[in-house]
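Note to self: keep these together.
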Amino acid sequence: MQFSARITDYQKNAMLNICDAELLGKNISEGELDMHVSKRYYGEKLIDKEEAKTLLQNSSIINMIGKETVSLSLELGIGSENGVKIISDIPFLIVFKM
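Structure:
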């Protein structure tokens, strides 16, 4: 499984945008909600599961989308199932670590 990730600084915090690699460039729609999984936002580099774990553990703000990505985050104790939103059967989660 590959993930796609982009790391930026946001107000002196590491912000990670990460998704399942196969979602890059796709549009996800449900009702009035339409989301584009853009390469510009999520696609800085392709990474493996171990690097994804490290980035998830070391980032303060995380925007994530995809079954594998959200699953991995929850396995690591990052985020909560209560915070997961489903858009067209694809999980989406935003985490702010304090």
